[in-house]
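Exercise 3.2. Students should predict the tertiary structure of the chain below and write it as structure tokens, then compare their answer with the key that follows.

Predict this chain's 3D structure.
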Amino acid sequence: MNAELLEKISVNRLRHDLFYLCRDPLSFRTVSYTAPWHTKNSLDETDEFLSTEMKKFGQIRMIPYKLRPYRCNRSKSLHHWYDTPRPEDPWYDGNCIEVLLPGKDRPEEIIQLVSHKDSMSWINSPGAHDNAVGTVANMELVRILSAIPLSRTVRVLFCNEEHTPWYSRTYALDAAKRGDRIISVFNQDLLCGKSDAAAAAGIRSMVAWYSKEEGKVLADFLVRENEKYALELTVSAVHKPSVNDDDGSFIKAGFLRTVMTCGSAVPYGDPQYHLPGDVPERVDIINLALSAQLLLAAVLDIDEQGEEAFA
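Answer key:
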């Protein structure tokens, strides 16, 4: 892989997309909020932005389904106020978005990228770290990868996780039923999210969370990639005992070489996790760009070498 390709990750594009999704013109990404004088809820507007931008670079598929916002239960612990909807609560029409970059030589081998694009549905939070950063990182990867002849297929799922049900579960199960050969799954969630102390100390980090031994292989690969390309990141592989989040959807469907990439060695280390203070101004854009560079390097080396890359 030509290391010069990593320089194509654009800090300016990442910043633009981040503030577009979290500040102006969108402030939230949920069916629970419609901006004054707008005719679409903010999640529909998010989908319109993503699909319009991504169709410039890849084959997109809109996947319609029914979803509901979570209820807010302030009696629960601070960061976990989400609660199950009641039977009488309304359902909404929603979408997930799939972007396909077909490979030329081994298109049946798939490198799967995932990020949830919605923000909290039970409170008004911009959701910058959770999970606009993962969304804009995957958008940037699509832009760069679309201009490179790929041997294997890269497939990206922009899904919803802060609403219910999680479509990633259905998506992963459908992939298993078809017999898709997914050779790696990277779920970008809370990418570059970290504690205030780590941010103040200038620490730029990525943590590859894995739940299965096959996932550890992929997490260790990311650690080696960071060393190989001398990126200014602190990267670690950490076991995640709970099989949850969108990466858990793929693990439960049988795709065990799966990791979740985030910014902290403590799950949800960002003190504004699931709170209104999760604003884009707090995001370390350089950390985000370095994380996107590492993911780009990993995808390109897997594309070139296939499963031999993990040896």
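Discussion points: The helical segments are 11-22, 42-54, 128-146, 167-178, 196-200, 213-228, 245-252, 285-305. Residues 3-62+95-305 form a domain with the Aminopeptidase fold (CATH 3.40.630.10).
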